[in-house]
Amino acid sequence: MSVSAFIAVGAAVFLTTRSPLFVIQAVELAEQPDEAPVDAQTILRLAAVPTGKISLFELDLFEVERRILANPWVEEVYLQKRFPQTLSIAVRYREPVALIQTKKQGLRYVDVRGGVFGAVTLMYQPDLPLLSHFDSAEQRIPEAIQLIRDWQNSPVGKDAEIASIVWDGEKGFRALTSYLLRGGKHRVMVDLGMESGLVLKSNLEHLARVLRYLSHRGIAARQVWADAGKKIVVKTARGS
Fold first, then answer.
1. 160 Cβ contact partners less than 8 Å away, ≥ 6 residues apart
2. Alpha carbon distance 226, 37 (integer Å)
3. Which has the closest alpha carbon to 163: 151, 177, 150, 149?
4. Domains recognised in the chain with CATH numbers
5. Cβ(215)–Cβ(181) under 8 Å?
6. How many Å apart are CA 109 and CA 46, to the nearest integer?
7. b/e for 102-114, b at 16 or more Cβ within 10 A?
8. What is the three-state SS of 207-218?
9. Percent helix, strand, coil in the chain (nearest 5)?
10. Would you give the distance in Å from CA 188 to the centre of its chain?
11. What is the pLDDT along the chain (240 residues), one digit of tens a residue?
């Protein structure tokens, strides 16, 4: 290619990228979930795309993505330049599966990977299981989330709900749960020990049978130990 031809091509590209035909006139946000934790106006405000002032060629998608990701609820951002004049935005939000009480940040959400984020608002999922006393054992948070998932997916999850999980440096995971008793729900603390994974899953299946037995017999338990190998130890309340 000759020098003159190269200059001509460069000039054409320069003029095209700055043509008013490609100046951004619209920013479209994909349909939000019915209970989205962040409203559409907030996402568009975070994106801060200068419509009518910049062309699609000049728009820095990485900067737009960075600004939207500044919101703690946003997990992923999908951006697409739709020529000649539109930017499309789609957002995927974090899914909270638990709450956690922290000393420094107060009550926060926990996602499926064990990531702590966002201050809790009573307007959005306030009835999730609560994690506490994990400030000195943050590495155990993902295990606690897996414990909740294993519990919910095991037979015990059909008969007993987890209200909270406490980490005890000596006893390990302690779950406050409830089971049906005389038409109401009876709460009991269950010690699950230090381990998670396959051993815990096996114990949960055994625990399901024990709690079902207590429920059917109308027995109120004060404490349950499910961390003693294959045995489940139950301390009952007086008169039950």
1. 177, 178, 179, 208, 211
2. 37
3. 177
4. 3-93 (3.10.20.310), 96-236 (3.40.50)
5. yes
6. 21
7. eeeeeebbbbbeb
8. HHHHHHHHHHHC
9. 30, 35, 35
10. 26
11. 554 544 443 444 444 556 688 899 999 999 998 889 999 999 999 999 999 999 999 999 999 999 999 999 999 999 999 999 999 999 999 999 999 999 988 999 999 999 999 999 877 766 899 999 999 899 999 999 999 999 999 999 998 999 999 999 999 999 999 999 887 899 999 999 987 776 677 788 889 999 999 999 999 999 999 986 668 999 997 655
Q: Is the peptide bond before 84 cis (omega within 30 degrees of 0)?
A: yes
Cα angle: 86, vertex 88, 94; to 5 degrees: 160
Q: Are 194 and 173 in contact (CB under 8 A)?
A: yes
What's the token pair of residue 88?
Answer: 């499309």
Please report, as a single letter, which amino acid is at residue 53: K
Q: What is the DSSP string of 23-90?
A: B--EEEEPPPPTT-SS-HHHHHHHH---TTTSBTTT--HHHHHHHHHTSTTEEEEEEEEETTTEEEEE
pTM > 0.90: yes or no: no
Residues 6+ apart with CB under 8 A from 122: none
Q: State how far the Cα of 205 lies from the Cα of 199, in Å rounded to an integer.
A: 10
Length, in residues, of the chain: 240
